[in-house]
């Protein structure tokens, strides 16, 4: 009901705004924010070191065929994002120091959970990326302070933030979770927490050159953080060890075909040893560690007009400890064409394929999972009538949802909408 009310109010608001005399300015394709520049105040604040970023995203999905319970009403999930960046060098004269804050709120119901999944073999991906880990109330998603030692190439960040904000990072131009943000948090989510969840942590980054850097982090492992009503709980009383990610990042400006790319390789190690947090996924035997690794590649392949317009490719591979994790590896590949048509330089045509493999030892015990993998495909078009508004109609197809043949392959029609304030 809250989401429907929010959507209704938002729709009425947009209708009223569009009818005013300033509609032409509001719908200027080059306008960055729905609320504009606040009569110049936004730019003035940015000059002084204070920046704000806010948006609302709504993922709509309809199970058109297949799955566990097709032809039900579409469902909606949403995320409100309120962020800020404070440059304390400009504000207070503190050299190289900045603060980042983010608060999020999610709500809604998922087609993957309610309609696609076999109750005994849930779908592993989700056709609505804004669902989960925060569907009641709000969360402190980030409050961190960074110090950059500019002469040495070292930076340090401390506070509360999600691992996937700075490690295993990839762009998110799809509605299905299997193509969005840090994949480690999707397939080894018992020990790796992505946004909107935050945890106490710190990270050290060293820049060897403008294109090559390495980073390491240490994050408190606290399963209380992922509970629905614990978004503002800062206590460490339920902590159980730490999660340590290490990553090498190469961001060449002239790689394949002389075009820019981004390449990441890394691994993580988790030291939780309480049996309720870390155990053999098959035998139930207590374990005192788990691990995983990843490789991410994003590369522009062609260029139009000497800019980001053109064909881009991406790939994401992950590997997981099959003693503590039912998924032992994942592969993801896809293509995006930015600016596919004349005068549509910000639009994106995208296609992605993802394969999520369940370990043999897990399937031997849980025979309901009689397929070795779940596959997710998505074809979409991200339409930007202005820079502050985005509509992304998409078609998704899920093969063997939950890695079982007891549920039919699922055809999903989706629509992501986003407004940037």
TrEMBL record:
Protein name: Uncharacterized protein
GO term, biological process aspect, one: carbohydrate transport
InterPro entries found in the cross-reference section: Carb-sel_porin_OprB, OprB_Porin, OprB_sf
Organism: Acinetobacter rudis CIP 110305
A GO CC term attached to the entry: membrane
UniProt family annotation: Belongs to the OprB family.
Keywords: Signal
Entry-linked Pfam families: OprB
PANTHER family reported for this sequence: PORIN B
Signal peptide per UniProt: 1-23
Coiled-coil annotated spans: none
Domain of life: Bacteria
GO molecular function terms attached to this record: porin activity
């Amino acid at each position: 009901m809250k989401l429907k009310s929010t959507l209704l109010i938002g729709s009425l608001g947009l209708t009223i705004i569009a009818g005013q005399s300033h509609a032409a300015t509001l719908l200027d394709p080059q306008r960055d924010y729905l609320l504009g520049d606040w009569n110049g105040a936004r730019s003035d604040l940015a000059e002084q070191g204070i920046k704000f970023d806010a948006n609302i995203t709504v993922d709509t999905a309809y199970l058109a065929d297949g799955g566990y319970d097709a032809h039900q009403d579409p469902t909606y999930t949403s995320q409100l994002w309120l962020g800020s960046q404070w440059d304390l060098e400009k504000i207070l004269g503190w050299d190289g120091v900045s603060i980042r804050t983010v608060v999020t709120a999610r709500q809604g119901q998922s087609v993957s959970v309610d309609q696609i999944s076999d109750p005994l073999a849930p779908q592993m991906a989700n056709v609505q990326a804004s669902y989960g880990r925060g569907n009641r109330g709000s969360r402190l998603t980030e409050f961190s302070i960074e110090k950059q030692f500019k002469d040495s190439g070292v930076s340090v960040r401390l506070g509360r933030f999600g691992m996937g904000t700075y490690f295993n990072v990839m762009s998110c131009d799809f509605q299905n979770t299997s193509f969005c943000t840090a994949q480690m948090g999707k397939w080894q989510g018992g020990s790796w927490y992505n946004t909107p969840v935050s945890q106490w942590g710190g990270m050290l980054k060293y820049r060897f050159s403008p294109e090559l850097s390495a980073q390491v982090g240490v994050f408190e492992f606290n399963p209380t953080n992922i509970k629905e009503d614990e978004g503002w709980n800062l206590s460490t009383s339920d902590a159980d060890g730490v999660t340590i990610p290490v990553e090498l990042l190469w961001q060449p400006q002239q790689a394949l075909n002389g075009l820019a790319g981004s390449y990441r390789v890394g691994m993580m190690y988790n030291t939780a040893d309480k049996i309720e947090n870390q155990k053999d996924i098959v035998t139930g035997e207590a374990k005192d560690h788990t691990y995983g690794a990843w490789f991410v590649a994003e590369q522009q392949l062609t260029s139009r007009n000497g800019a980001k317009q053109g064909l881009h490719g991406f790939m994401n591979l992950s590997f997981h400890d099959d003693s503590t994790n039912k998924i032992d590896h994942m592969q993801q590949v896809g293509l995006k064409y930015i600016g596919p048509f004349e005068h549509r330089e910000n639009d994106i045509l995208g296609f992605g394929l993802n394969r999520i493999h369940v370990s043999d030892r897990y399937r031997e015990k849980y025979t309901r999972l009689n397929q070795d993998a779940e596959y997710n495909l998505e074809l979409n078009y991200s339409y930007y009538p202005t820079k502050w508004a985005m509509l992304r109609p998409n078609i998704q197809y899920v093969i063997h949802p939950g890695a079982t043949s007891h549920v039919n392959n699922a055809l999903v029609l989706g629509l992501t909408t986003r407004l940037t304030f």
